[in-house]
C-alpha cells in the first residue's frame, strides 16, 4: 500500500529540511577550513546554501517544499492546508533540520551534537530577522498567488543568497533551521539563548509578510493550477 499524500508531504519536508540545514552547516565548516577571510566564508556559505535550495525546491516541489514552519503556517492562514497538518509538517521540519545538523557535524569529524556558543542578539540583528522573514514570505506567496510557481525555486534561492548579505542577521528566516543550527558549534551556529529571540522575530516578520500578501494578491491568479 502506497503512503498517503500527507505522509509523503511530511517525509519531503523532513528530508528537504535536513538537506537544507546540512548545506548551511556543512558549507560553513568547509568555508572556515579553506579560508580565514570572513567575507569569503560568508560568500561560500551563502552560495552553497542557495544552490542547494534551488535543487531541493525543484526536486521536492511536486510533493512539498516549504522547509520552513513560518511558510507552512502562512500557507495554513491562507487556507492552503488545515492547521493540524501545518503543525505536523512543522514538527517534521524541525526534526529534519536537527538531523541535518547532526549529520553535518559527523561528516566533518565533529561531535554529533555540540551546542553553539555563537551569540546572536541585539536590536539590529532582531530587526534583520524580521526583514529577512518578511521578504521571504513575500517572495514565496507572491510567486504562488501570481501563478509563477515554475520560477519559485530560483526566486526563493536568489532572495536567500542576497539576504545573507543585506540583513544584519545573515537571514536565518526559518525557525526549524534556527533550532537546528544551535546543535553545531561552528561558523553557522547560534547559541541556544539567542534562539527564542530569533524565532519570535521570524514569526513577526512572517505575520507582516502575510498581511502584505493579502493586500497585494487577495486571490490566486487564474493562471495557477488550483483555478485552471
UniProtKB/TrEMBL annotation:
Residue ranges crossing the lipid bilayer per the database entry: 12-35, 47-74, 86-108, 123-144, 151-173, 193-217
Membrane topology: Multi-pass membrane protein
Protein localization: Membrane
Assigned keywords, A-Z: Membrane, Transmembrane, Transmembrane helix, Transport
Keyword NAD part of the UniProt annotation: no
Alphabetical list of InterPro entries matching this protein: Aquaporin-like (IPR023271), Aquaporin_transptr (IPR034294), MIP (IPR000425)
Keyword Hydrolase: no
Main localisation: membrane
Family per record: Belongs to the MIP/aquaporin (TC 1.A.8) family.
Protein name, UniProt field: Aquaporin
Natural source organism: Nocardioides jiangxiensis
Amino acid at each position: 500500500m502506497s503512503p498517503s499524500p500527507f505522509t509523503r508531504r511530511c517525509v519531503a519536508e523532513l528530508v528537504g529540511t535536513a538537506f537544507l540545514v546540512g548545506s548551511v552547516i556543512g558549507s560553513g565548516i568547509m568555508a572556515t577550513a579553506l579560508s580565514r577571510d570572513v567575507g569569503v566564508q560568508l560568500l561560500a556559505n551563502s552560495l552553497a546554501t542557495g544552490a542547494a535550495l534551488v535543487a531541493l525546491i525543484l526536486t521536492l516541489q511536486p510533493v512539498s517544499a516549504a522547509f520552513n514552519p513560518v511558510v507552512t503556517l502562512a500557507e495554513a492562514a491562507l487556507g492552503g492546508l488545515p492547521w493540524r497538518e501545518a503543525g505536523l509538517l512543522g514538527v517534521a521540519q524541525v526534526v529534519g533540520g536537527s538531523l541535518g545538523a547532526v549529520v553535518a557535524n559527523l561528516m566533518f569529524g565533529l561531535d554529533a551534537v555540540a551546542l553553539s556558543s555563537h551569540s546572536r542578539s541585539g536590536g539590529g540583528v532582531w530587526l534583520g530577522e524580521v526583514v529577512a522573514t518578511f521578504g521571504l514570505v513575500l517572495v514565496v506567496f507572491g510567486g504562488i498567488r501570481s501563478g509563477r510557481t515554475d520560477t519559485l525555486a530560483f526566486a526563493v534561492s536568489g532572495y536567500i543568497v542576497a539576504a545573507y548579505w543585506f540583513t544584519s542577521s545573515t537571514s536565518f528566516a526559518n525557525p526549524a533551521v534556527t533550532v537546528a543550527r544551535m546543535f553545531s558549534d561552528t561558523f553557522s551556529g547560534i547559541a541556544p539563548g539567542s534562539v527564542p529571540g530569533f524565532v519570535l522575530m521570524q514569526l513577526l516578520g512572517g505575520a507582516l509578510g502575510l498581511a502584505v500578501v493579502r493586500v497585494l494578491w487577495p486571490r490566486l491568479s487564474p493562471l495557477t493550477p488550483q483555478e485552471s
